């Protein structure tokens, strides 16, 4: 397979559903759109082998493989509960009806009884599903909305973000943040995790764009581009679970 070249973002105005060029005369429904996720590359991430210039610790758009800027504006928070088929066919949780690493179910209702699989069991067994705290975000100069998902070892960063956003008041999209990457070490295994830091108020131009996307996507199902396996934000990470609750 021929290696792809790393792509840097060039300034261009973000796209909106309502304002499109010629060829888009038929109305595009929001449920037909698939949004990219911000993926934090790990040492074993397949994108590193496929695209020249990418390395562990970078955060990329998982549709374009472009490196994302650090600054972002969260617009809408929503939570998902996901279960993926194990990649090892010998796992007791392996489901022969699905391909290895395939998504088995995705739910958004916290009252669904299946969400119990996202918690450690009473006997200490690891979760067989994951809880993901998602934020639909605007990265200035990136022409499409990006979803940042916080799960597993990065779940604390998600709680930090929603706490900062909620306690400082105002619209969620009235403030800007930096998406940081830290290196962690567990039992001698090094990997990268997300962190966030507040950076101030959104300028008028960015606020207007974020507000427009809020109006377009609020109350709607948000579909994201998923690879096989749990690709929310920790692509290629060894599957060491952290207690998210």
Secondary structure layout:
Layout: E1 4-5, E2 38-41, H1 46-50, E3 51-52, E4 59-61, E5 71-84, E6 103-107, E7 130-138, E8 146-150, H2 155-167, E9 175-186, E10 189-201, H3 204-217, E11 234-235
Parallel strand pairs: 1-3, 2-11
Antiparallel strand pairs: 2-4, 5-6, 5-7, 5-9, 7-8, 9-10
Beta fraction: 25-35%
> Which series of helices and strands comes N to C?
EEHEEEEEEHEEHE
CA-CA gap between termini: 41 Å
Percent range for helical residues?
10-25%
Q: Largest sheet, if any?
A: 6 strands, antiparallel
- Low-pLDDT parts are 228-245
User: What gross morphology would you assign?
Assistant: globular
Would you give an account of this structure?
- The structure is a single chain.
- The protein is α+β, with helices and mostly antiparallel strands.
- The protein contains 3 helices and 11 strands, in the order ββαββββββαββαβ.
- A hairpin with a 7-residue loop joins β7 (about 130-140) and β8.
- Strands 5, 6, 7, 8, 9 and 10 form a 6-stranded antiparallel beta sheet that branches. Strands 4-2-11 form a 3-stranded mixed beta sheet. It has a two-stranded parallel ribbon with strand order 1-3.
- It has helices spanning about 45-50, 155-165, 205-215; strands spanning about 5, 40, 50, 60, 70-85, 105, 130-140, 145-150, 175-185, 190-200, 235.
């Amino acid at each position: 397979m021929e290696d792809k070249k790393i792509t840097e973002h060039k300034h261009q105005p973000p796209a909106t559903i309502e304002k499109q060029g010629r060829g888009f005369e038929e109305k595009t429904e929001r449920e037909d759109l698939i949004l990219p996720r911000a993926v934090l590359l790990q040492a074993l991430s397949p994108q590193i082998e496929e695209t020249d210039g990418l390395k562990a610790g970078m955060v990329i758009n998982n549709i374009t493989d472009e490196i994302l800027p650090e600054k972002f504006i969260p617009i809408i928070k929503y939570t998902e509960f996901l279960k993926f088929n194990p990649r090892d066919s010998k796992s007791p949780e392996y489901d022969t009806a699905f391909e290895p690493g395939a998504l088995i179910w995705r739910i958004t209702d916290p009252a669904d009884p299946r969400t119990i699989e996202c918690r450690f069991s009473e006997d200490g067994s690891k979760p067989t599903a994951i809880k993901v705290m998602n934020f639909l975000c605007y990265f200035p100069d990136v022409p499409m909305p990006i979803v940042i998902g916080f799960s597993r070892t990065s779940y604390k960063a998600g709680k930090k973000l929603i706490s900062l956003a909620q306690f400082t008041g105002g619209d969620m999209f009235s403030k800007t943040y930096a998406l940081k990457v830290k290196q962690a070490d567990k039992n001698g295994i090094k990997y990268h995790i997300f962190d966030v830091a507040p950076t101030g108020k959104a300028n008028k131009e960015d606020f207007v764009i974020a507000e427009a996307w809020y109006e377009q996507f609020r109350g709607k199902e948000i579909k994201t581009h998923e690879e096989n396996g749990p690709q929310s934000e920790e692509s290629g990470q060894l599957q060491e679970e952290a207690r998210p609750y």
